[in-house]
Amino acid sequence: PVYDEAKVAAYAHTVVAESTLDELLGAMPADLQDNFETLLNNFVSDEKKSMLLLFNFNVSAAYVDDDGTFVLMDYVKVIRDKIAGMNAETDNIVTAYVTGEAAISEDMRASSEEDMKMIQPVTIFIIIVLMGILFRSVVAQFLPLGAVGMAIGISHALMFAVGTLVSPVNVMVPTLLFAILMGVGTDYAIFIVSRYREERVKGATREQAVHASVTWAGEAIVTSGATVIIAFFAMAISSFPMVQIMGLVLGLGIVVALLLSLTLVPSVLMLFGNRMFWPNTGKRWDRYASNIMEKRRTAKHGYFHRAGSFAVKHAKVILIVALLVSIPSTYLFVAHETSFDFISSMGEPESIEGMNAMTEDFGAGRIMPTQIVITGDTIIYNNETGEFNLEYLDAVNNVTSDIANSPSVQQVNGITWPYGEQIDYRSLDQLHEEERNQIVASMLQDLSTDRKSVILTVILKEQPMSFDMVHFIPDLRDNLSAVMSSEPLLSNSEIMVGGATAANYDMSLTTTQQFTTIEIVVVIGIFIVLLLVLGSVLLPAFAVISIAMSITWAYALTYLVFGTLLEIPILWLVPLVLFVILMGIGMDYNVFILTRIREEVHKGKEIKEAVVDAVDWTGGIITALACIMAGAFGSIMLSSNAMLQQFGFALLVAVLLDAMVVRTYIVPAAVTLMGKWAWWAPGPLQRVGREEKRKKKLEGQ
Asked: Which end of the chain is more exposed for a tag (fewer CB within 10 A), N or C?
């Protein structure tokens, strides 16, 4: 018969608009009702109050158009706008959520932009206030801030180039770039300005002060910058795009900040001199400088002189206590089971609310099902005769049944289970033509166009990113291999397990293995840099150990706060990235104190005196730098993303521990115990004492 399409469409619209599902089901032929009801249960909840609409696309959520547009993420906004328009027309009689991989990605991007709007002004305000207190000025703080602002601008241009030429930039990277440059870049510039101020207090001319600050403080920040750059660039080794691009972008940002601190900042100091410290200029400056020098002449020592003296006198006790504290924290860092659930770290945007609604009405695994592909050389369906290879279907059905019987699986859809339940595929010839054609069409949806590959869709019982479901993937693969080997027709077929859960497992496994290599590269690279700069073998080794201790302490406190008190799981990426970032950034204050100790020893002081004086002279500035960096990192905790909150808290804690515990007590204690061996290095690598050896050699001749 010939149908009038307009009348058919109008009738269908009337049926859908005016009929209930039960009425629609009752109007169907009896031989179609069972299959339709089974299919209906996949899209309508048991209470008949919720319904799913599925959109299938021919590209992934990560697909980027030639003009740099994330096509599906933009399409999510289009769908939401249409839904908002329909809701306005119907007085919001229904609640609609757009969720899925593309919607989650779009919500992450939008929330990241909102986070930056809040984080940026808070960070800048904190840094301006802290620098104003440090310099006792309303002008000086804008020099480091201006240098960092330029570094951020240039770094964003480089980030655009990286995103265009290498790989798209994850939405979290700009937030980390801003916070790290505001913390680290500001530290570098402040260290130059502070050393300039110290030299002017001692009576040096403007030219002498600039020269000394670039010579000594410059060497310290170059060394520190080199360790940070090594740490970030080592992350580019990873095959995980987020980590790879994060390392590349952050490393380039540190390079830019370092260059500006070594060039722009000294140039501005040379031009403006003490006017940078206004209103602390003129007679006020003279009184300020004379008061500082008078305190030192009359031995009116402050906290950091007492701290340095305490570290020298009780060196053994300090190191033993540090070691004892590190044992449980190291165990926690190594053995603690982390979470794979990136989704739950996002907060409650629409996509997550939609996923929660799906979880409640349809089961948690439906949002991101696992796919299993079985491919071989056998033709499964003959397009010409319309017949299936029933023996091959038997083998595939055995695999499907085995998967469905797993306690971790809620439902399986496949060629012999097109509606989530097994059908009698061997009796298709006995069905009416209309019913047979409907079932065959459903079966062919899970068959490739060349009729040689089958796809099985597995819906897991729990949230697909949960720890148990992610670790179900290797068990599933092992079980599939065993079942496949027991089926002769499938023995030469290839089976692959994919989907978001499997991808997360594979990514974590590969990234964890790669991070072992990255960590080794970072440690060796930092050791070599410190060996060349300090001219010592033992000091670089202990510097690495001391930072590793503070990393485990920071992680333990992060776990206590987030994992125990707030009950927010620690994501698996956090300890990996934390180790690499802190091994670079945390080395800053070690470098600052060790280069200052070496400078004092170079001036002819005994090791204990050099240690105390170095702690005394650098204590205030390093603590101030740590507070500024901690403030910058702490602002990341304002993010709505739990992973960024964890990064921000861990970085804040680690920086404060490094400056106030490691740098103030542990490093001075270790240098004291090492004594003259602290500066030992083979041959020409040794810097401290080399001049004395050369003089003795000449005297002997």
From this structure: N
